[in-house]
Design a protein that fits this description.
Structural class: alpha/beta
Helix content: 25-40%
Largest sheet: 3 strands, parallel
Bound molecules: glutamic acid
Order of helices and strands: EHEHEHEHEEEHEHEHEEHHE
CATH superfamily of the largest domain: HUPs
CATH class of the largest domain: Alpha Beta
Radius of gyration: 20 Å
CATH topology of the largest domain: Rossmann fold
Length: 300
């Protein structure tokens, strides 16, 4: 893509099911941040894992975004169409000796407590089998998140060598997201705080692949009473296409956009488009709660 603008944002749902309130909040925050900066807002379908994606989910997501007035710029990018680009990026890293194969089982990895101990680094297994991991340096990656403030992570000590191609042959999210953010000339990422600790891995890959670094803002994630992220696995209710205004108002509230001001009473009866125009005109990213999660009242 040759489009260069000062601000290019994106929403990148994984089509594992219909959008729910948590996904609406992420879509809305990235949309308003882009529109308030007169930027572009692109849509990327992260459909890398067909076994977890009901065939109708992508189309359903597109029509839900339309019903909520969240119109994206340009064509939708489908990650399922981009496998060649991921293979090229992986080959580049392989040629530089940064990739190795790992046949550790899920149980072995779980026993390491969240930081891979790099035990397969020196085993020199055939790169045709197993998962492919990238060697990480003993180095701190730092960035300043627009909402959550300064962040840092030592990739070796806090993460370990991470997977770029899974054992089943599928490309990993970390690789695909970095390749596509660069391909789409993304400048600003606004997404859920569950991805905050993925960001240093993405900064590392951007650096290796010669891609520009980006601005990041991680919004709180909506959780249920048990503290679990709303998701299909946790039976989050799909968005109600008949009630876009009510749910957009709830999402604006969740994002702190009414704090310190009386919401205009007309907003309750506004159309989604009117609400989004209001939201972009009043968007204040610093009003977004600087929290990792916010519990939703049951029923909302
Ligand atoms: N596809 C990811 C998700 O649905 C989001 C990826 C991103 O925003 O970087 O959680």
């Amino acid at each position: 893509m040759s489009n260069k603008a000062d601000y290019i944002g994106r929403f990148a749902p994984s089509p594992s099911g219909p959008l729910h309130f948590g996904s609406l909040v992420a879509a809305l925050a990235s949309y308003l941040d882009a529109r308030s900066a007169q930027g572009l807002w692109l849509l990327r379908m992260e459909d890398l894992d067909p076994a977890r994606e009901p065939p109708e989910a992508s189309v359903q997501i597109l029509s839900t975004l339309e019903a909520f007035g969240l119109h994206w710029d340009g064509p939708v990018l489908y990650q399922s169409q981009r496998l060649g680009a991921y293979a090229d990026a992986l080959a580049n890293l392989q040629e530089r000796g940064l990739i190795y194969s790992c046949d550790c089982s899920r149980v072995q990895i779980q026993a390491m407590g969240g930081v891979y101990d790099n035990r397969c680094r020196l085993r020199q297994l055939q790169q045709t089998a197993g998962a492919l991991r990238i060697v990480v340096p003993d180095e701190i990656f730092e960035f300043v998140d627009t909402i959550q403030g300064p962040q840092q992570q030592n990739l070796l000590r806090e993460c370990g060598d991470f997977v770029l191609r899974r054992k089943d042959g599928l490309f990993a999210y970390q690789l695909a997201v970095v390749v596509d953010d660069a391909f789409q000339n993304i400048t600003h990422i606004v997404r859920g705080s569950d991805l905050l600790d993925s960001t240093p891995r993405q900064l590392y890959l951007q650096k290796l692949l010669g891609f520009p670094s980006l601005h990041y803002a991680h919004i709180p994630v909506a959780v249920n009473n048990e503290g679990q992220k709303l998701s299909k696995q946790h039976f989050a209710a799909p968005l109600d296409l008949q009630q876009p205004t009510t749910q957009l108002l709830a999402a604006l509230q969740f994002l702190g956009q009414f704090s310190g001001r009386h919401p205009d009473p007309h907003l309750a009866t506004a159309s989604p488009t009117e609400l989004l125009v209001w939201g972009a005109a009043h968007w204040d990213i610093q009003a977004v709660p600087k929290l990792a999660t916010i519990p939703l009242q049951s029923g909302s």
